[in-house]
Amino acid sequence: MAEVQSWPGRRFVAAPEPAPSRFPRSVFDHGEEPDPRLTLANERTFLAWVRTALALIAGGVALAALEVPLHPGARLAASLVLTGLGLLVPLAAWRHWARVERAMRLGLPLPSPRLAPPLAVGVLLVAVLVVAGVVLRAGG
User: What is the extent of the structural domain holding 129?
Assistant: First the structure.
Protein backbone atom coordinates (compact mmCIF):
# COMPACT_ATOMS: atom_id res chain seq x y z
CA MET A 1 0.00 0.00 0.00
CA ALA A 2 1.18 3.52 -0.73
CA GLU A 3 2.58 5.61 2.09
CA VAL A 4 0.08 7.98 3.71
CA GLN A 5 1.15 11.55 4.42
CA SER A 6 -0.88 13.76 6.68
CA TRP A 7 -1.37 17.47 7.04
CA PRO A 8 -3.58 19.11 9.64
CA GLY A 9 -7.13 18.39 8.53
CA ARG A 10 -6.08 16.55 5.34
CA ARG A 11 -4.85 13.13 4.37
CA PHE A 12 -2.78 12.39 1.26
CA VAL A 13 -1.85 9.09 -0.31
CA ALA A 14 1.41 8.98 -2.24
CA ALA A 15 0.92 8.33 -5.94
CA PRO A 16 2.17 5.00 -7.25
CA GLU A 17 5.13 4.88 -9.60
CA PRO A 18 4.16 5.31 -13.27
CA ALA A 19 3.58 2.12 -15.22
CA PRO A 20 6.76 0.99 -17.01
CA SER A 21 4.94 0.25 -20.25
CA ARG A 22 3.93 3.78 -21.32
CA PHE A 23 3.93 4.38 -25.06
CA PRO A 24 5.95 5.63 -26.80
CA ARG A 25 8.98 4.53 -24.85
CA SER A 26 11.21 6.92 -26.84
CA VAL A 27 9.38 9.71 -24.99
CA PHE A 28 8.45 8.29 -21.60
CA ASP A 29 11.68 6.44 -20.83
CA HIS A 30 13.58 9.73 -20.52
CA GLY A 31 13.67 12.56 -18.01
CA GLU A 32 11.15 13.44 -15.34
CA GLU A 33 7.42 13.95 -15.36
CA PRO A 34 6.63 17.55 -16.38
CA ASP A 35 3.81 19.62 -14.94
CA PRO A 36 0.61 17.80 -16.00
CA ARG A 37 -0.83 21.07 -17.31
CA LEU A 38 1.97 21.28 -19.86
CA THR A 39 1.51 17.67 -20.93
CA LEU A 40 -2.23 18.19 -21.32
CA ALA A 41 -1.68 21.39 -23.32
CA ASN A 42 0.67 19.48 -25.62
CA GLU A 43 -2.01 16.81 -26.05
CA ARG A 44 -4.67 19.43 -26.84
CA THR A 45 -2.39 20.88 -29.51
CA PHE A 46 -1.96 17.42 -31.03
CA LEU A 47 -5.73 16.93 -31.06
CA ALA A 48 -6.21 20.34 -32.72
CA TRP A 49 -3.88 19.22 -35.53
CA VAL A 50 -5.91 16.00 -35.87
CA ARG A 51 -9.09 18.08 -36.20
CA THR A 52 -7.34 20.15 -38.86
CA ALA A 53 -6.46 16.95 -40.71
CA LEU A 54 -10.09 15.83 -40.61
CA ALA A 55 -11.19 19.19 -42.03
CA LEU A 56 -8.61 18.92 -44.82
CA ILE A 57 -9.78 15.42 -45.73
CA ALA A 58 -13.42 16.53 -45.63
CA GLY A 59 -12.60 19.46 -47.92
CA GLY A 60 -10.80 17.15 -50.33
CA VAL A 61 -13.69 14.69 -50.39
CA ALA A 62 -16.20 17.53 -50.85
CA LEU A 63 -14.30 18.94 -53.82
CA ALA A 64 -14.18 15.49 -55.44
CA ALA A 65 -17.75 14.44 -54.66
CA LEU A 66 -19.78 17.62 -55.14
CA GLU A 67 -20.52 19.45 -58.34
CA VAL A 68 -18.28 22.41 -57.55
CA PRO A 69 -18.20 24.74 -60.58
CA LEU A 70 -14.47 24.39 -61.26
CA HIS A 71 -12.44 23.06 -64.14
CA PRO A 72 -12.34 19.27 -63.54
CA GLY A 73 -8.52 19.08 -63.59
CA ALA A 74 -8.12 21.91 -61.08
CA ARG A 75 -10.85 20.44 -58.88
CA LEU A 76 -9.15 17.03 -58.86
CA ALA A 77 -5.73 18.56 -58.15
CA ALA A 78 -7.09 20.67 -55.27
CA SER A 79 -8.90 17.64 -53.88
CA LEU A 80 -5.72 15.55 -54.00
CA VAL A 81 -3.66 18.28 -52.30
CA LEU A 82 -6.22 18.64 -49.49
CA THR A 83 -6.50 14.90 -48.98
CA GLY A 84 -2.73 14.46 -49.09
CA LEU A 85 -2.27 17.19 -46.48
CA GLY A 86 -4.95 15.51 -44.39
CA LEU A 87 -2.96 12.28 -44.50
CA LEU A 88 0.36 13.92 -43.60
CA VAL A 89 -0.79 16.26 -40.83
CA PRO A 90 -1.55 13.58 -38.18
CA LEU A 91 1.85 11.96 -38.74
CA ALA A 92 3.66 15.27 -38.40
CA ALA A 93 1.48 16.20 -35.40
CA TRP A 94 2.40 12.94 -33.64
CA ARG A 95 6.08 13.59 -34.26
CA HIS A 96 5.76 17.15 -32.95
CA TRP A 97 3.86 15.98 -29.86
CA ALA A 98 6.65 13.48 -29.09
CA ARG A 99 9.42 16.06 -29.64
CA VAL A 100 7.71 18.58 -27.33
CA GLU A 101 6.91 16.00 -24.66
CA ARG A 102 10.46 14.69 -24.63
CA ALA A 103 11.90 18.23 -24.49
CA MET A 104 9.69 19.03 -21.49
CA ARG A 105 10.74 15.82 -19.74
CA LEU A 106 14.43 16.61 -20.29
CA GLY A 107 14.18 20.31 -19.44
CA LEU A 108 15.23 21.36 -22.96
CA PRO A 109 13.92 24.29 -25.00
CA LEU A 110 10.76 23.44 -26.90
CA PRO A 111 11.29 22.60 -30.57
CA SER A 112 9.88 24.89 -33.22
CA PRO A 113 6.82 23.71 -35.09
CA ARG A 114 7.68 22.20 -38.47
CA LEU A 115 4.11 21.57 -39.52
CA ALA A 116 2.79 25.08 -40.08
CA PRO A 117 4.89 26.15 -43.12
CA PRO A 118 4.10 23.12 -45.34
CA LEU A 119 0.46 23.31 -44.33
CA ALA A 120 0.31 27.00 -45.23
CA VAL A 121 1.95 26.35 -48.61
CA GLY A 122 -0.49 23.49 -49.29
CA VAL A 123 -3.54 25.59 -48.46
CA LEU A 124 -2.16 28.43 -50.61
CA LEU A 125 -1.71 25.95 -53.48
CA VAL A 126 -5.33 24.81 -53.09
CA ALA A 127 -6.50 28.44 -53.19
CA VAL A 128 -4.52 29.02 -56.41
CA LEU A 129 -5.98 25.83 -57.92
CA VAL A 130 -9.52 26.89 -57.01
CA VAL A 131 -9.03 30.35 -58.54
CA ALA A 132 -7.47 28.79 -61.64
CA GLY A 133 -10.34 26.30 -61.82
CA VAL A 134 -12.90 29.13 -61.76
CA VAL A 135 -11.03 31.08 -64.43
CA LEU A 136 -10.59 28.02 -66.66
CA ARG A 137 -14.23 27.02 -66.27
CA ALA A 138 -15.40 30.55 -67.11
CA GLY A 139 -13.09 30.76 -70.13
CA GLY A 140 -13.79 27.30 -71.52
Answer: 37-139
